[in-house]
Amino acid sequence: MIEEKYEKGIDTNRHNVKDILNLGSSFYITTNYDMALTDYRSENVSPYCLNDIEDIQDFIYENKQRVIHLHGHVDKPSTMIVTQGNYEEMYDNAGVKDILKSIMGNKKFLFIGFSFNDEYFKDLYEKIIKNIGGEHYIITPNLHVFESEDLSQHHLIPIGINVKEDNGVLDTQDYVKAIKTVLEQLL
């Protein structure tokens, strides 16, 4: 079903995949199951799940622009985290915690299109930050001052973007354009 809804070759003005890849990060972490980040890459590097990482230090510094699918991906259905039990098992796993702690301790995160409403990830993120400190960034639409303060308390530096809304629904094209503008400024 996910494969059926995912369209390859969509006009790049309708998404930010290329913009994200243009950042030239040494790797990308996504909670999405689809293969968009992998499909738009110029090199053919296999996507990873956390359990594919054998040596975290080698991984952090290999600079292959790998895509890590935190919740698994469609090409390996057995890796997909979909049920509450899957989430609990994954986020209670000491190995997962250690890998994310190592990554967050060595790199800055830029959250894009991530609402930070995933309670499992949020809880783990807060535990890691409490132990190792650090600050990370989040791009968020139509940021209110109270939301900004809340994000800051969680060691997230908010980058607010203005996005048109219609009855509380974000205008997708405007959202893509706003993210594109921010990412271009980071290059």
Automatic annotation (TrEMBL):
Q: Pfam families attached here?
A: SIR2_2
Q: What is this protein called?
A: SIR2 family protein
